[in-house]
Write a structure and sequence with these properties.
The complex is a heterodimer. Chain A has 10 helices and 10 strands. By secondary structure, chain A is of the alpha/beta class. In chain A, the strands form 2 sheets. Chain A has a 6-stranded mixed beta sheet, with helices on both faces. A 4-stranded antiparallel beta sheet of chain A has the order 2-1-4-5, with helices on one face. In chain B, strands 1-4 form a two-stranded antiparallel sheet. A two-stranded antiparallel sheet of chain B has the order 2-3. Helix content of chain B is 78%, strand content 2%. In chain B, a hairpin with a 2-residue loop joins strand 2 and strand 3. Chain B folds into 2 domains: 298 residues, ABC transporter involved in vitamin B12 uptake, BtuC (Orthogonal Bundle); 25 residues. Chain B is mainly α. Classes of the chains: A alpha/beta, B mainly alpha. At the A-B interface, helix 4 and helix 5 of A face helix 1, helix 7, helix 8, helix 9 and helix 10 of B. Chain B: It comes from Pseudomonas typographi.
């Protein structure tokens, strides 16, 4: 509820993510059709829609896994539509994945430390020439990584192998790893998928806390209750097009949305 | 606290190896044994590169023997044919290896798993073919003699050469430890896992694959040069299957993705056949059966064996204590 009060102020912030007419075609299929939306600084922005509505495709356009057929993705005051995937984290974009993607064979802490990669010396030869600096930085990284693990509540598992973590903790690990890159915008692809009620509630609290510290968040999620309580603003997609946008209250009474999504779900139940 | 451990574990192993390696010649009686320990150093350098490439970064190359031979031939041609000095020919041969690896790496590293293995294997085969057929340049199947090294009029003896190789091997192990215990090691391990996730975290996947491929080629070239100096000749067998088989055997026996697997594997692969000569004709069969048993019962090689043993011993030591504690708790 706290989230709603912040909303007017948050909406007035500067635009962080500016999607203009984004379109993605796979052969004859139009997965995302001319979608425009803006995410402002300090907002929690939700993408809703039935299965196959194009949420994940839009998410992949923003994160750079896919390059849009038409339209522009603006981030950090520049067009990032065709920017290489590995250059985005340095701009302040960090993401988690719909199906958890952690690095196997590595410890939990090492997985978090991967998040710092873009801030470190790139390349073998430069690292060798600056070996002293690399080793000193490594020591700091471990402390910073432990602090992040403590923040998401995984400090006790730092030295465990990731294979030994249950699903809910892997989700938290992915968030800690994303935070390690020092993002200004956190993109979460179905963060509550596969979590139980308690874990979902804890996740909501964690995200609210991050947002209150000034982090902007974009999420794709199926869990409507979770989204309504968390987001300042929502966009609803159906068949690749944006059919509604507004505050949670506006979305809940929007006729298009009720017909396309809530209504269909209600008739199911 | 963890970092102090990191630095200690980086330096400790190589320091111990240097110490043991320095004492080894004092215990050996024949020049043949000295040659064996020199070959262990050479294989360790060669396989450390392969281990970084395949064990850590998950990119298989079956062409390491090609770079091994390229280094040896490049060095010998520059020194014997072009008349360069040792201190010029050595780095030049390594640069040749690096450039060739870069050129073939750019197209090849787009491939994965067995496609990458086949493509790199072709490089090794092509090299062996060229080395044996371009007779006027490479000396054909007979190869070329490598002049013995001289510094300021002093001819380098086999023992001195061994000490140089030992030092080189320790330096290579230090380099490996530095790489795998910092962000570079994490970047390499992220390649064998999930490339999309790695890229999203800012890892330039293409660049890192290329970097480690070039490094492993340079280490293979370095081993090749060392091998040319120890055997005082180069010939096309440097880039043929037996070398590749040795690399793979060392990897399996020693343990992939471990720090000292290359050294442990090299010791076994070089020394074991000597012990098996007593069996005469059945030597190869026994060697093969032993390898098979290794694969079946020690999937992580010798490096996997020691931690397992250690853990088992510790569990045995701890288990009675825990049992006693639980019995004590249960009473009230």
């Amino acid at each position: 509820m706290n989230a709603f009060k912040q909303q007017p102020g948050a909406a007035a912030g500067e635009v962080m993510l500016d999607i203009k007419g984004a379109t993605m075609r796979f052969g004859g299929l139009v997965a995302v059709n001319d979608v425009s939306l803006q995410v402002c600084k300090g907002q929690v922005y939700g993408l809703l829609g039935p299965n196959g509505a194009g949420k994940s495709t839009l998410f992949n356009l923003v994160t750079g896994v896919l390059v849009p057929t038409a339209g522009q993705i603006g981030f950090a005051r520049q067009d990032v539509s065709t920017l290489a995937l590995h250059r985005r984290s340095a701009l302040g974009m960090a993401r988690t994945f719909q199906i958890v993607r952690v690095f196997h064979g590595m410890s939990v802490l090492d997985n978090v430390l991967m998040g710092f990669h873009h801030t470190l010396i790139d390349g073998l030869l430069p690292s060798m020439f600056m070996a002293g600096r690399v080793l000193r930085r490594e020591r700091q990284l471990r402390e910073e990584g432990m602090a992040l693990l403590a923040f998401v509540g995984l400090a006790a598992r730092a030295e465990d192998r990731v294979e030994h973590l249950p699903h809910g903790q892997l989700r938290l690990l992915e968030i800690a790893r994303a935070l390690a890159s020092g993002p200004t915008l956190l993109l979460l692809d179905e963060p509550a998928a596969g979590l139980n009620d308690l874990e979902t509630r804890n996740l909501g609290q964690l995200l609210r806390k991050l947002n209150s510290e000034g982090l902007s968040i974009v999420l794709v999620e199926h869990n409507i209750d979770f989204m309504m309580g968390l987001c300042h603003r929502l966009a609803v997609l159906d068949h690749g097009s944006k059919i509604a946008e507004g505050t949670p209250q506006q979305i809940q009474v929007d006729e298009n949305v009720i017909e396309a999504y809530l209504g269909r779900r209600a008739s199911h139940a | 606290m963890k970092n102090a451990n990191t630095v200690r574990s980086m330096l400790g192993g190589p320091a111990l190896i240097l110490l043991i390696g320095a004492l080894v010649p004092l215990l050996l009686t024949s020049g043949f044994h000295l040659r064996l320990v020199s070959i262990i150093c050479i294989y360790t350098i060669l396989c450390t590169g392969f281990n970084l490439l395949y064990g850590y970064a998950g990119q298989i190359s079956m062409g390491q023997q090609g770079f091994f031979a390229l280094g040896a031939y490049g060095f010998t041609l520059l020194m014997a044919t072009a008349g360069w000095s040792f201190s010029a020919a050595l780095p030049a041969a390594l640069v040749i290896c690096a450039v060739v690896a870069l050129l073939i790496g750019i197209p090849l590293l787009r491939l994965r798993s067995h496609y990458l293995a086949m493509a790199t294997l072709c490089f090794g085969l092509v090299f062996a073919g060229v080395a044996s057929r371009w007779i006027e340049f490479t000396g054909g199947t007979a190869g070329m003699m490598v002049p013995s090294l001289k510094f300021a009029g002093h001819i380098v003896s086999r023992t001195e050469l061994y000490y140089a190789l030992l030092l080189l091997m320790v330096l290579v192990l230090l380099l490996q430890n530095f790489i795998v215990s910092t962000h570079m090691g994490r970047a390499l391990m992220s390649l064998r896992g999930d490339e999309t996730a790695a890229q999203s975290l800012g890892v330039n996947v293409t660049a890192w694959k290329l970097r480690i491929f070039v490094l492993s080629a340079v280490l293979a070239g370095l081993a090749g040069i060392a091998s040319a100096l120890v055997s005082r000749q180069v010939n096309p067998s440097f880039s043929e299957f037996p070398i590749l088989v040795s690399i793979l055997t060392i990897a399996v026996v020693g343990g992939l993705g471990t720090r000292y697997g290359a050294l442990l594997g090299a010791c076994v692969v070089v020394i074991a056949p000597q012990g098996l000569t007593a069996f005469g004709e059945s030597e190869t069969v026994i060697y093969g059966v032993c390898l098979l048993l290794f694969l079946m019962f020690m999937p992580h090689g010798l490096s996997g064996l020691f931690p397992t043993l250690f853990r088992r011993l510790r569990r045995k030591a701890v288990a009675p204590a825990i049992g006693a504690a639980q019995a004590g708790e249960a009473k009230p």
